[in-house]
């Protein structure tokens, strides 16, 4: 698998698109929590994968992929995740947006000149 | 509107999730084309907004939002976009993934400690 990309089954499946701007505070605490949440999410039933990017200005997008809506709700209510999410809203983000979407089709490819 | 965030209507609407890793080549050409494509997309019927992030390692996620599937298809077939997309696949990306999804619900918020 190419680094950074989620290896996903064929659609349909669900995406949770989380956009956020960091406030620049508590980078060590944030990084540790982000890693812990990624590990914990990966243990959830119905977790398919995730992709994440954050630019130098602190604006980031994380998309996590799930088998179905029940898996998303179970992750939302997972106790440690709920506590960390509440902490993040208070201390780590200037602003965030979360969108839940059903992926209907997908394509991908390698770059490079084809001979 | 907070910088970087798309200001969107209430769901349902569609998301095109484009994940990519840049190959590090032709940064000036890529940046100019990315800006031109963002401007051109914003002129399309049914365009709702977009959010984008690329990290220091060249992994990026751009999510563009559209009113319906017809708007996504029209953008896909827009002539200048099609030419630029083919160029990008050959010269700018190591790898890319594109997923089309229907956004079913959305939430957002401001960070900061609530008194």
Structure report:
The structure is a homodimer of 115-residue chains. Chain A has 115 residues and is an alpha+beta fold. Chain A has a single domain (13-107), classed as Alpha-Beta Plaits. Chain A contains 3 helices and 4 strands, in the order βαββααβ. Chain A has helices at 27-42, 69-77, 79-91, and strands at residues 13-22, 47-54, 59-66, 93-110. Chain A has a 4-stranded antiparallel beta sheet. In chain A, strand 2 (47-54) and strand 3 (59-66) form a beta hairpin. The longest helix of chain A is centred in the N-terminal third of the chain and has 16 residues, at 27-42. The radius of gyration of chain A is 15 Å and the shape is globular. The two termini of chain A are 23 Å apart. The mean pLDDT of chain A is 94. At the A-B interface, strand 1, strand 2, strand 3, helix 3 and strand 4 of A face strand 1, strand 2, strand 3, helix 3 and strand 4 of B. Strand 4 (93-110) of chain A pairs antiparallel with strand 4 (93-110) of chain B.
Summarize this entry quickly.
The structure is a homodimer of 115-residue chains. Chain A is of the alpha+beta class and 115 residues long.
| Low-confidence blocks of residues of chain A | none
Number of domains of chain A: 1
The assigned CATH architecture of chain A is 2-Layer Sandwich
Which range best describes the helical content of chain A: under 10%, 10-25%, 25-40%, 40-55%, 55-70% or over 70%?
A: 25-40%
């Amino acid at each position: 698998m190419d680094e950074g990309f989620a290896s996903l089954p064929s659609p349909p499946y669900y995406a949770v698109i989380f956009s956020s701007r960091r406030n620049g505070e508590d980078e060590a605490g944030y990084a540790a929590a982000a890693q812990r949440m990624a590990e914990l999410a990966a243990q959830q039933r119905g977790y398919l994968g995730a992709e994440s990017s954050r630019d130098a200005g602190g604006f980031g997008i994380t998309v996590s992929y799930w088998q179905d809506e029940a898996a998303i709700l179970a992750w939302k209510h997972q106790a440690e995740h709920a506590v960390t999410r509440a902490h993040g809203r208070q201390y780590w983000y200037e602003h965030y947006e979360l969108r839940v979407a059903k992926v209907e089709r997908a394509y991908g490819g390698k770059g490079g000149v084809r001979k």
